[in-house]
Input
Amino acid sequence: MGSGAEGMKYRFQWNFPLVFSPHEANAIYAGGNILFKSTNEGHSWEAISRDLTRNDRTKMGPSGGPITKDNTSVEYYGTIFTLMESPVEKGVIWTGSDDGLVHVTRDAGKQWENVTPKNMPEWIQINSLDASPHKGGTAYVAGTMYKSDDFKPYLYKTSDYGKTWKKITNGIPDGAFTRVIREDPNRQGLLYAGTETGIYVSFDDGENWQSLQLNLPVVPITDLALQKRDNDLVAATQGRSFWVIDDLNVIHQIQDAMKTDAYLFKPESAFRLPGGGGFLPPAATIGQNPPAGAVIYYHLKNRPAGDVTLELVDPSGRSIRKYMSRSASAPAGPQPASEEGFFGGGGGGQGRVSAEAGINRFVWDLRYPEATRFPGLILWSGETRGPRATPGTYQVKLTVDGKTLTQSFDLKSDPRVDTTPTEYAKQFELLMKIRDKLTETHQAIIQIRDVRKQMEEITNRVKDQADAKPVIEAARALNAKMTAVEEELYQTKNQSNQDPLNYPIRLNNKLAALAGVVASADAAPTEQSFMVYEDLTGKIDAQLQKLDQIMKTDLPAFNRAVRDKEIPAVIVRAKAAGQ
Output
């Protein structure tokens, strides 16, 4: 404390690099003015290099001044600012210094070579470097000169361990000085660069760059990290939080997509996870989680003349459901909505897929079609949603103007649970039975209400006729029997979501609530769940049998009464006196 860099045996700055070896489980590197290595979690360190900076003593005086100095032992110059060991070749280690030198060793530090690009500014800060995840001799360097009022981008590439370098900045404007460069671990030659004004992408190993800004604010990108397993790109910004592109498979396939009239991207694996994550909506200080479900992207060169259809197919080849761009063709009930397009394009409304030109995204919520609903349905703690798909390999089919494209994707289980395929199957089977029985129950209620409405239309027309009494009495008797069944199946007094507090729920609600219990965890149903299911469906079936008998006997009797009285289809009322 209080001394300038000239008084230090080793020089470290605020954010000196600390890097784990990708090849040795216990090895970690730390960069000062020389490179250190520890294999015992920092209990001891070994110097594995000479000074890898310019070691210019004229740049190592006290910091600060002239009124007061700022010597806190970290405001030092002439240090290793970035380092990386090759992910594919053990012992190949690259370093870059804040005073403009690049070094490499190919034998884990026994010998070092100064491989600084010859056409690089002398005192440039090597802000980051990236050892290729594909080739041992390939590396990329990002430098900054903004502290010298030079705001041009400086990116360089070598393919021969630094013997030769090529500047690769075409497409990045002069005002966007560069801070970081990374190569995609899943696609050789696909590069990402973070600059003072945003993010850029190159599909041809740096020969050309274009903006990848999308919805990212105009903000300095201070670092980029790529996750090979999850196929994510994470950006650290200066003052605007972390941002993530969690579907780089679209970037990987974008060039192929642009060559065709319609293109269906291969979806990433989806995970069977609960909900969409988080209790609070996204805000300035709260991030947005990825959507829950399978994310499907497709590209349309132009808006097609006909309908666009997405179909999901289960592992056995059976169709799960179809989504269409025409609202009239969408399945009934709540559906997952398409979302705003990526690189242009757009999303459709609720239950529809988009037919806009560009790249479109659709999120399948992993659910099978829901149970039939009827107008005014009120349930307490029950659901009509279809069950979630079980882990396995699924297909998505995109049909555009008669041409069908198919891709497969894996649905994986929640990695935090150890549920077996047999247990998933038992849960799915019971949930499908509940859904189907709930549909049968609600269709019976719809049938009752439809018959009642038709009877009311007839009785209202003939109530003033002299011979209408037998018809009205037959309608009253029929309605009483149907109402008795309806009130066993559904609580008809429910008018608001709070009414079940006053009026007991009926069989349909109990069955719907059982579905929520069975689906509450990724586990096989309990024995009690099967017992409740058998009890409820037995009672429902008894009511459905009554209704079936009513429709076979009482409804024909009513129809005969109408026919016997020869009720006319149109009744002309007599005019009132004086008209």
User: Anything to note?
Assistant: The first helix runs from residue 248 to 257. The chain has three domains: 5-246, 270-277+289-412, 421-564.
